[in-house]
Amino acid sequence: MKRITISFVITALLLLLPSFAYAGLGVGIGTGKIVVDEKLRSGVIYNLPSLTVVNTGDEESDYSVSVA
User: What pTM value is reported for the model?
Assistant: First the structure.
């Protein structure tokens, strides 16, 4: 009976303790300097310099960039 009680307590503790998963996720960007010398107008498309995105983590990831 004592063995069953100890097994039950150990199992309950393992189920109640939080489990941790570690992943090396991260992203870095190198924008340099973005300068627009003209007045920005609605509906006009502007060609800007490239945006360098570096995945600094160890997992494959997808990223998107938007401007608001």
Answer: 0.38
